[in-house]
UniProtKB/TrEMBL annotation:
Species in which this protein is naturally found: Physcomitrium patens
SUPFAM superfamilies reported for this sequence: Barwin-like endoglucanases, PHL pollen allergen
Coiled coil: none
Main function: Causes loosening and extension of plant cell walls by disrupting non-covalent bonding between cellulose microfibrils and matrix glucans. No enzymatic activity has been found.
Keywords: Cell wall, Cell wall biogenesis/degradation, Membrane, Secreted, Signal
Membrane topology field: Peripheral membrane protein
Transmembrane segments: none
Cell compartment(s), UniProt: Secreted, Cell wall; Membrane
Family to which the UniProt record says this protein belongs: Belongs to the expansin family. Expansin A subfamily.
Annotated protein name in UniProt: Expansin
Top-level taxon of origin: Eukaryota
Domain Expansin-like EG45: residue ranges: 48-162
Length: 254
């Protein structure tokens, strides 16, 4: 009777509220942040950064990347992680304008850089924020706005090919850039094994660069653990006759 009708009406109301952007907070599974942009209209000025990727275009990341604020960057632990962004609804007023194109459009970006505290406008000062290459920003919002409110959530990274290892350093201090990591994308632990046959823990030097001081020879294998706790073993990712400066490709998270 009347009680069942009231319960049905309440249930419909809850579903309706959950299906719309919340005026009180982010939808379930999403968090709030803002986006700004840097670089030029063709993505120039965004290739390097605090993760150690020398050229995001050459490495396959393109312009769909982001410099993360301090709370998100976590000293480089988020390098390689993927985030989905979409615009947050904002009621326009005489002093406030929402420059977003659409509230249903989403983009996915990879964390490749840091947006440090003290940057222009204070957007990166101790709050979640994404500073995007201009082309990535303009897929969500108008350039003239300069800044836009968004919702964000961490998502799995879809990468072409296998995990890549760029060999640097010297025989007694290996510095390996690990990139194109699928799955969670971000690295939490890395072990390396050479001809000696035992696993050697590496440590994060900075960004996506991992180091060990053990002299290794022969084919190199890796055990990689990502931020979600998954581990993949990449056997003989690097062949026997490797040289510093080379990039090798192994298997991938599935």
């Amino acid at each position: 009777g009347t009680r069942k009708l009231a319960v049905c009406i309440a249930a419909v109301a809850i579903l309706a509220l959950n299906s719309l952007p919340s005026v009180l907070g982010a939808p379930y599974g999403w968090k709030e942040a803002h986006i700004t942009y840097y670089g030029t209209a063709n993505g120039g000025g965004t290739q390097g950064g605090a993760c150690g990727y020398p050229n995001t275009f050459a490495m396959g990341y393109g312009v769909m990347t982001a410099a993360l604020s301090y709370p998100l960057f976590q000293g480089g632990k988020s390098c390689g992680a993927c985030y989905q962004l979409k615009c947050k609804w904002l009621a326009p007023t005489r002093t406030v304008h929402n420059w977003c194109w659409s509230y249903s459009r989403t983009i996915t970006i990879t964390a490749t850089n840091s947006c440090p505290p003290g940057s222009h406008g204070g957007w990166c000062d101790w709050k979640p924020h994404f500073d995007l290459p201009m082309p990535a920003f303009m897929t969500l919002a108008r350039r003239e706005g300069g800044v836009a409110p968004v919702y964000y959530r961490k998502v799995r990274c879809a990468k072409r090919g296998g995990i890549r290892f760029t060999l640097g350093g010297n025989p007694y201090f290996m510095m390996i850039l690990i990139h194109n990591v699928g799955g969670a994308g971000d690295l939490r632990a890395v072990k390396i094994k050479g001809r000696n046959g035992y696993w050697v823990p590496m440590w994060q030097n900075w960004g996506a660069l991992w180091t060990c001081k053990t002299k290794l020879s022969g084919a190199l294998s890796f055990q990689i653990t990502t931020g979600d706790g998954r581990t993949v073993t990449v056997n003989r990712a690097v062949g026997d006759y490797w040289k510093f400066g080379q990039t090798w490709e192994g298997s991938q998270f599935r």
